[in-house]
Automatic annotation (TrEMBL):
NCBIfam families: HMP-P_kinase
Key words, A-Z: ATP-binding, Kinase, Nucleotide-binding, Thiamine biosynthesis, Transferase
Native source organism of the sequence: Ruminococcus flavefaciens 007c
Record pathway: Cofactor biosynthesis; thiamine diphosphate biosynthesis; 4-amino-2-methyl-5-diphosphomethylpyrimidine from 5-amino-1-(5-phospho-D-ribosyl)imidazole: step 2/3; Cofactor biosynthesis; thiamine diphosphate biosynthesis; 4-amino-2-methyl-5-diphosphomethylpyrimidine from 5-amino-1-(5-phospho-D-ribosyl)imidazole: step 3/3
Name of the molecule in the record: Hydroxymethylpyrimidine/phosphomethylpyrimidine kinase
Lineage of producing organism: Bacteria, Bacillati, Bacillota, Clostridia, Eubacteriales
Amino acid sequence: MKTALTIAGSDSCGGAGIQADIKTMTMNGVYAMSAVTALTAQNTTGVTGIMEVTPEFLAMQLDAVFTDIRPDAVKTGMVSSDKLIRIIAEKLRQYKAENIVVDPVMVATSGSRLIAEEAVETLRLELLLVASVVTPNIPEAEILADMSITSDKDMITAAETIGRKYGCAVLCKGGHSLNDANDLLWNNGNITWFRGKRIDNPNTHGTGCTLSSAIASNLAKGFGLEKSVERAKEYISGALAEMLDLGKGSGPMAHAFALTGEFSKTAE
Ligand SMILES: Nc1ncnc2c1ncn2[C@@H]1O[C@H](COP(=O)(O)OP(=O)(O)OP(=O)(O)O)[C@@H](O)[C@H]1O
Ligand SMILES: Cc1ncc(CO)c(N)n1
């Protein structure tokens, strides 16, 4: 069985972060492992607390995983602070990790900040340089490319700027702000649009985490990057289309929508 590792924060309400990543990887047919960067006290309406692990303990988790079950792909999500980012980059280089998907998480859907302001620079300098692909939404792409984005053409320019500067592929997600759920992949000079149908569902807690984990799972299974993004978009569309409605805010998606059979049955 192929394997994938998520390096991210825990979301106590289960819709984003580590919990979304493990559900997504499992549903996409790979064995999921996790290294936790921080605990969040969080629900669909917001984040009320953050407790970071120490850099030493994050390093111990990464050593434990890499020296035993080598991941075929790695996804990073909430990385929180300067010191944690440096450890992650160092360990990914040390173990020559492959298929690294960096979701440059900055602000949760609910509006709460998930990375220290000064750590954004470290994320650029350390994590983007080891990434195979980075998956910014529009506000994140604006910060990473240092420009404002108001059109499809701007998305292409921003993705190319980020890709050339950091030597990685870039998936710029239009979903939130600009267009229908159309995402743009810049991969070594080649441009591919993934045109998704916008699903009229306000429950989008954890969409970014879910998409990047689905991409990592497909890379782990040996699909190329374009095919991995295409398959990940199909998975997230299926999870959104279930119209799960939990919680008082922007709720989570139905990660296990494709699960049928004995163990997914409810009581009569
Ligand atoms: N309503 C929707 N219908 C269909 N696809 C959507 C919808 N909303 C988001 N997506 C898709 O979900 C994926 C994640 O994009 P999104 O822009 O929501 O990420 P994000 O802003 O990083 O998420 P998060 O808020 O979890 O950090 C993209 O492929 C996007 O096109
Ligand atoms: C722990 C965690 N990571 C990422 C996100 C982004 O959606 C979130 N809300 N919580």
